[in-house]
Q: What sequence folds into this?
């Protein structure tokens, strides 16, 4: 399998995501959250937050778009039909709440080949409107040999 | 919190879960929402989104250990395929504790198979 390591370090244009109250609630319901700070903006305000609080894994919603150009980048050459999500890491900073605007930059941090499989590692760095890092993601996709 | 403490979360995804999660997350890969497509590409049928299952692992931590602000880091490996209408069980075990942080190991299983393994979290105390 041919892999192109020349693309390691390639960075894609930042994406901007405006966190909406109803989107946070919809996501929280879909993942089965019970904590009212994710589901009820009055409860969130009573707990001292400006609005509903995004569950930590809502990070996928605001940061995913930053790596899509890399997944489909012809220079990277991922065989999308044979790609599986191998592993995932997130590191979180301050909580994200509805009303925040999150800017995410995606970078292809590593490309390697092991056992006939290609490993494509993307990093995302997400910051809120105050410049605080709210989440750093490491997304490892594995492409099986056809 | 002490080394060796454990927690568990059990959840059974209903047959429309992947449709709701696709809408909520924006991940409309047809292997999760189209039974015929999934079978055409060699799967037994529609499968769970790995990131939904990871969200259950995250929720197990935030519910057991004091809220979303406590979760500083979570890493997981995805293995196999999760399916709907069968219980998913998340288990976590506290491996290390110091004055500021704890390290927790976790996994998610379904029908005795691990669908998430090598989960490792850092918890702010």
A:
């Amino acid at each position: 399998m041919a892999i192109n390591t020349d693309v390691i370090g390639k960075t894609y244009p930042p994406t901007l995501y405006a966190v909406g109250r109803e989107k946070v609630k919809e996501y929280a319901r879909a993942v089965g959250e019970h904590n009212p700070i994710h589901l009820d903006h009055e409860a969130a305000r009573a707990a001292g937050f400006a609005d509903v609080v995004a569950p930590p894994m809502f990070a996928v919603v605001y940061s995913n778009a930053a790596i899509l150009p890399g997944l489909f980048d012809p220079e990277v050459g991922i065989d999308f039909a044979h790609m599986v999500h191998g592993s995932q890491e997130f590191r979180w900073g301050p909580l994200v709440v509805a009303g925040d605007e999150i800017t995410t930059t995606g970078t292809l941090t590593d490309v390697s080949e092991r056992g006939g499989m290609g490993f494509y590692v993307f990093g995302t760095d997400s910051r809120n409107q105050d410049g605080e890092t709210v989440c750093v993601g490491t997304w490892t996709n594995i492409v099986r040999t056809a | 919190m002490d080394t060796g403490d454990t927690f568990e979360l059990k959840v059974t995804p209903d047959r429309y879960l992947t449709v709701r999660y696709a809408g909520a997350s924006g991940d409309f890969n047809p292997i999760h929402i189209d039974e015929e497509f999934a079978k055409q590409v060699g799967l037994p049928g529609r499968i769970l989104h790995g990131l939904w299952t990871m969200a259950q692992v995250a929720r197990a931590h935030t519910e057991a250990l004091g809220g979303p602000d406590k979760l500083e880091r979570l890493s997981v490996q995805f293995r196999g395929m999760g399916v709907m209408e069968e219980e998913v069980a998340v288990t976590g075990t506290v491996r290390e504790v110091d004055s500021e942080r704890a390290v927790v190991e976790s996994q998610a299983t379904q029908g005795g198979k691990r669908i998430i393994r090598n989960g490792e979290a850092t918890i702010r105390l």
User: Anything to note?
Assistant: Residues 6-14+48-124 of chain B form a domain with the Thiol Ester Dehydrase; Chain A fold (CATH 3.10.129.10). The first helix of chain B runs from residue 17 to 25. Chain B touches chain A through 32 residues (CB under 8 Å).
